[in-house]
């Protein structure tokens, strides 16, 4: 498996991420350290934040649920929607039937901010997820203080001892972690750490290469009592059929909706895909 030693396959050895993900993870550590001394102040704000809108519950139902993303740029495409108004875009997504809104808060490669997260969370009535490269508990408190209901945790970015710590911390705060994986070894780690919402990313964040067969191959192995989310590489309704047929409960779509001329109509078309009876175990 990528990122693990081949010498001891029985007990895979985690190594620090490389490539783009490695750089973004290192930058995330630096940002976390820069605000670590504000932890108590963030806790005070978080305790007074708006009530959490249940994320897990929002991702189940007769149709494939759509998590629509507010996204101005990405490492793979550069600037894609520089003038995007986060609140206006999120409100259009909700009118189109989005079950949840993902807000990028990474500032250097995605053009996001915590201010975007706070503004969107205050404007919509669906769950809002902080999408970033989270590596420290203080970033979870930032998310909750800004009004988020959920936060992304990328298994490849987190040492084995850190993943369960962040999952537990998120739940103590009131956040639902969306735990992102790319292979079966990472799925085992996510399940062992107690993840209940599991995302499978078609994009390898180290190389930025997309393989749309990844999520359909991994999702059938996610237990049926967990929520399965397919991520990346989906543009049109037809692109949702493979993850849907594999048993996905939801999809996370970013560039396709952020660059759409009519984001409300784009989300509505994606949200109209009916789920199949899942074969997941």
Automatic annotation (TrEMBL):
GO terms for biological process: L-tryptophan biosynthetic process. Signal peptide: none annotated. Pathway: Amino-acid biosynthesis; L-tryptophan biosynthesis; L-tryptophan from chorismate: step 4/5. It comes from the Bacteria. It is an enzyme of class 4 (lyase). PROSITE patterns: IGPS. One of its GO terms (molecular function) is phosphoribosylanthranilate isomerase activity. This is indole-3-glycerol-phosphate synthase. It comes from Gemmatimonas aurantiaca (strain DSM 14586 / JCM 11422 / NBRC 100505 / T-27).
């Amino acid at each position: 498996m990528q990122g693990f030693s081949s010498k001891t396959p029985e007990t895979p050895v985690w190594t620090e991420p490389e490539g783009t993900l490695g750089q973004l993870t290192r930058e995330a550590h630096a940002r976390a350290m820069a605000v670590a001394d504000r932890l108590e102040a963030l806790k005070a704000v978080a305790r007074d934040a708006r009530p959490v809108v249940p994320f897990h519950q929002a991702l189940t139902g007769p149709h494939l649920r759509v998590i629509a993303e507010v996204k101005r740029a990405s490492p793979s495409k550069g600037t894609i929607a520089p003038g995007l108004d986060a609140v206006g875009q999120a409100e259009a997504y909700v009118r189109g039937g989005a079950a949840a809104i993902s807000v990028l808060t990474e500032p250097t490669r995605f053009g996001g901010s915590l201010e975007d997260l706070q503004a969107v969370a205050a404007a919509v009535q669906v769950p809002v997820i902080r999408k970033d490269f989270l590596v420290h508990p203080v970033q979870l408190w930032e998310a909750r203080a800004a009004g988020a209901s959920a936060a992304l945790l990328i298994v490849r970015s987190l040492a084995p001892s850190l993943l369960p710590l962040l999952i537990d911390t998120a739940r103590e705060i009131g956040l639902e972690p969306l735990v992102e994986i790319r292979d079966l070894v990472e799925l085992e780690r996510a399940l062992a750490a107690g993840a209940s919402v599991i995302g499978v990313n078609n994009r390898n964040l180290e190389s930025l290469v997309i393989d749309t067969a990844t999520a359909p191959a991994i999702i059938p192995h996610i237990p049926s009592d967990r929520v399965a989310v397919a991520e990346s590489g989906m543009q049109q309704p037809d692109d949702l059929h493979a993850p849907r047929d594999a048993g996905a409960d939801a999809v996370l779509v970013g560039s396709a909706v952020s660059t759409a001329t009519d984001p409300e109509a784009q989300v509505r078309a994606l949200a109209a895909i009916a789920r199949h009876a899942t074969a997941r175990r």
